[in-house]
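Sequence in, structure out. Go.
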Amino acid sequence: MPYEALPPEVYAIWEAYPWRFGEPFCIFKSFLLESTSYASVLTITGFTIERYIAICHPITGQKVSRQSRAMKCILCIWIVSALSALPYPIHTRTFYYMQDPRTSSPIQDSLLCNIPIQWHPRMKIMFQVSTFAFFFLPMTVITVMYILIGIRLRKTEIGSSIRYFSKGAKSTATRARKAVLRMLGKYNLISFLKQYQLIE
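Output:
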């Protein structure tokens, strides 16, 4: 979970309802949570692609590695994230979830900040699109990138061992490459899964 959205989410665990901060902040919270989640996922995916270019295509990586390019990529990530998150604040409102069965008046303590039930069918497609675009697709890209990185490092290891390395040096290089792969893969996978709260 992105740290920017952590305070309101922690408060929601402490007191899920009634919502006490008004509708404007409810709408803003929905936008903040979605946009920062999308930005985090896209940033992790971008880092993975950059690592793939640096390892598998080092000459190309040196040519395109510029601070201005990095700034443009970051700006694009946030623009895409903000635009993709817009349907959520548009459809998020404060509403009373329950009514008094005797008077049919709303129960004040049931005030929620969420997507009203009547808009759920409209948002169903958005849920599916965001799940594919910001979970399955990035996860697939990250997996493919690391497979290609592993293949490239494996080929480099075999070629280097034939031409240059002694037995002891080869063993050291092998362990170093495996350690780097484990570190990069584990960090990216954990960071990615945390965005969707699949792990703590």
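Check: The first strand starts at residue 93 and ends at 96. The chain has seven helices and two strands.
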